[in-house]
Structures are given as C-alpha cells and as structure tokens.
Amino acid sequence: MSASEFKERADVVVVGGGPGGCAAALTAARLGAEVILLEALDLVGGNAARSTGYMAFADFEAQRAAGIADSPRGYLADMQAEVARQRESYGVVLDDTLAACYAEESAATYRFLVELGFRFNRFVPRPGQHTTDRMMDVADVGMFSRCFGSALQEAGVQVRHHRRARRLITEGGSVVGVRWASSEESPGAKELGECCANSGVILAAGGYQANFQLRSRYQPGHLSNTPYLGIHTDRGDGHLMGQALGGDLINMTMIPPLVMVASALVENSIAVDASGRRFHDEACPYDDRVRALDEASGRRAYYIFDAETAKSRADLIGQMPRPAVSAPTLEGLAREIDCEPSALRSTVERWNATVASGLRTDPDFGRMVFPAEGAGIVRPPFWASPMVVGINFPAGGFRVSLNCGVFNVFGEVIPGLFAVGDCVGGIAPAIGLGGVKISSAVTLGRIAGRAVAGKQPPTPAEPAVTAPADATPSTDEPSPRIPIVG
Ligand SMILES: Cc1cc2nc3c(=O)[nH]c(=O)nc-3n(C[C@H](O)[C@H](O)[C@H](O)COP(=O)(O)OP(=O)(O)OC[C@H]3O[C@@H](n4cnc5c(N)ncnc54)[C@H](O)[C@@H]3O)c2cc1C
C-alpha cells in the first residue's frame, strides 16, 4: 500500500501516548489545536500504567490540606542534591532552569490530574531523598490509561493505535510531520503513512530501555543485559529520530541499576539475606539497595511477604523477573529459600512487632516506609520473591528549551520539534528521589502542548538559578524567566 493513501494532516502530531504525550495532546487540543497522537500499542498510558504510580509535586493542595510546608525552591534543592550525589557515578547534569520550571508548574499538574479524575492515596515518605512529604501514590495506575483515554476522546484528539513513528519529515530545516509504519504489535495488515503537522511534532516516545543495542552503547559491560520490566515499545525511537536531525542528547549514560521490585510491594515486605536476617532499609535510595544486595552473602536475598500482600499486589508480583515461592509456614519458606528457619521466624516476628508498635522509624535500619494497610507479615501462606538487579528507567534525552523545543548540538532550537517525558534528559538524573518521572512527564507535556498550540508558559519575574553550561538556551529562543516562590 502506498504511503500517500494514509496521508493525514493536523496542527500537532504527538509521538507516543504515555503520560507525557497524553498531557501534551490533551493540552494542545483543549487550546483549539487539531491533534493526532500516534501510539505503538493498543492502549495509552505508557509505562506509567505499569508503574508504582508515585508522583511528587511541590506546594500543592494535598500538602496544604495536611499542613505540610513546601516550595518549588525546596523541591529544586532536593533535585540538585540528588543529582550532585549521582554526578560522580554517571557524569550527569541537572538542567536547573528546566527543573525549576517543572517544580514551579508541578502543583498545577496535580490539579490537572485531579480534574481528569485521578485519585491519590497518601503521602509516601522518602526522608532520605525528599526533605518533606511531597510524594503521593496514585490510587490505581490503570487511571493512566482510563482517565487519559477518555479525556483525549472528549477533547477530540485523534488517537491512532498500532502506529509506530519511524522518521521525522522536514522542510527547509523545520519539522513538518512524521512517517509511520504499523507497529509490530498491530494485529492487522501492515501499513505505512504520513502525518503532517502545521505547528509541530512532539516526541513523547518514552525512553530507550527496551532497546538492548542502544543500552549497550551507553551502559557499561554486563549491565546492559540486566532485565527490564516495563513496556517493550520504549525502544528509543524518539531519541533516534531527533538525533538524526542533530538533537542534543544528554545524560544518556545514566541507566541506573535497581532492585527489580515495585515500591508498592516493598512497603509490605521485608528483605532477608541467605542467613534469614534483614540487611538494609528496604525503602532506601535505589542505588543503596543495589549496593546492599551486592554485599549480601552470595548476592542472594528475598523479599518476604504474606498471603494478604500476595493477593493485593498479585499483578506486581507477577511482573517480577523470577518466580516467587510460597509455603504454609515460615519454617517451610525458610527451607524453600535455603536459610535458617529460626532466624527467618525471629526476623519476621521482630518486624511484625515494629509495625504493631506504631513506631515511625524501624529501630534496626531506620526504615520509615511501612505497610499502607498497617499490617505485618502474618497471614499464611508466606512468600519469598528473589531480589534481582535490573533497570526500569533511563535518564538520557534531549536538551530542551523552557517550551520543550529540542536543541540541536549547536544550541539552536530545531524548528517544529518538541520533546517531553523520557525523551527529555535535563530533569531525569533526579530519578533517585522517587516520583519525579511521571510528574515531570505530565508537566512538560502540559508545557509543550501549550507552546505548540501557540500559548507560551507565563513569563515570570525572577531568574531561577544559573543553568549549567550545557543547558544554556539558544540565543534564538529567549528563555522566559521562572518565578520561584519561597
Ligand atoms: C516498572 C516501572 C515502575 C515505575 N514507577 C515509577 C513511579 O512510581 N514513579 C515515577 O515517577 N516513574 C516511574 N516509572 C517511570 C515512568 O513510568 C516513566 O518515566 C514515564 O511513564 C515516562 O512517561 P513518557 O510519557 O515519557 O513515556 P512512556 O510512559 O514510556 O510512554 C511512551 C509511549 O510511547 C509509545 N511509543 C514508543 N515509541 C513509539 C513510536 N515510535 N511511535 C508511537 N508510539 C511509540 C509507547 O508504546 C508508550 O506508550 C516506572 C517505570 C517502570 C518501568
């Protein structure tokens, strides 16, 4: 079939229907733009619909209602501290100006989500990373597909499933459209086509973690073979298409190893090593968990949880790279995982006593994240899931302007090309804080949607912080100044 048979035109073409692409498409459509969204899969929601659903915002309604004082400046400072911590390992930089813009806009992102029907459960403490309670968990990550899906439909966004964008179309140096092919996931006949964009194309195709060739280019040694549990369509297509036009990719080396487990499962579990004893704060920073596992005897350790958790977190347990084992008693479970039965029993009993005591800090390892349901590991059968190192999210992506315009390697914005979410590299090295990725994807999506539909972000009064040398905006695009409220 010839490409011309499938030629379409809209004001805006969005590549990818994760939280970044959905927010961008929705915002642009609500401002009157005609929008086509290309999505390789049969559902929108992207990796967010497979995630734990932790999201961080600064100075937002739920914090105020709970009497928690916070500010975008405080959030920015936490991101800067986290990236300073990671700089030595990965050589990464935070784009302070973009991060300040995200922090400032994050409260509006929370409102945007609540208005779409998102519900949040509670604050999840991460005191070692976020200096105040600002991270919440989404009540159900299926909302990323459902709430965005119905809002896109209502706003008239033309969502084209099973279409994989393959190339950007340019005219006189400007991006004017996208060439696509039926995605490998498409059940129907293979098709090709073009979507032309009057105002711009937004790259929202997620990260490059499912592309082992790309990973091995940026990630050293054996790490590029570690498992990845997210969607397989995050193959770096956005990165490659933008790179082909000279787009400036930054922070690509950071694809942090982490222990493959959803935080919602960690909350209800303890981890024991081969001796049957706990060996770290299970909810500590991701890299510290990897270090703890590295140092555990024989690098062999397990998350232990009970029947209640096995039921309530069944989907998360099913996604773990290696199968969990169970037994009707703790002694039986100890035999399954080859550890000392009496040690496992006393470890579990001590944890249960800590949970029941109502303490807010575990006296053994300083853990401050406890089961949401307030119950210990009590109901048989008991379960053990092996701890395995893998990856979830890479940090690398394009350097972008405050309107999410993609910079080329010479620091000039590529006309007509925008990037959001995991296609952007300037904020993601702060991953280790927790809750940064989805919230910033939606925030940048809103900003890009506004920009491409012709409404720029508000022009603020005060400069935020000095951008690092490699985040200097192009002289072609004056950078709006970002207000920081104290
Ligand atoms: C297991 C797991 C747990 C996580 N937990 C959290 C968490 O609790 N909090 C947090 O902040 N972050 C978390 N993340 C990261 C977070 O999910 C992502 O950073 C976020 O979803 C990125 O949003 P996005 O819109 O940029 O891309 P994605 O959500 O990755 O979506 C990209 C979309 O683009 C589509 N696509 C890709 N290529 C093409 C193409 N060529 N053409 C058309 N469509 C294409 C994909 O199918 C996908 O739907 C987690 C990730 C994983 C894997």
Which features does this protein show?
binds flavin-adenine dinucleotide, 2 domains, 14 helices, about 475 residues, about 30% helix, disordered C terminus, Flavocytochrome C3, Chain A, domain 1, FAD/NAD(P)-binding domain, alpha+beta
Q: How would you concisely characterize the structure shown here?
A:
By secondary structure, the chain is of the alpha+beta class. 31% of the residues lie in helices and 19% in strands.
Characterise the protein shown here.
This protein has 486 residues and is an alpha+beta fold. It is built from 14 helices and 19 strands. The strands form 5 sheets. Strands 1, 2, 6, 7, 8, 9, 18 and 19 form an 8-stranded mixed beta sheet that branches. Strands 12-13-15-14 form a 4-stranded antiparallel beta sheet. Strands 3-5-4 form a 3-stranded antiparallel beta sheet. The chain binds flavin-adenine dinucleotide (FAD). The site of flavin-adenine dinucleotide has 40 residues, from α1, β2, β3, β7 and α14.
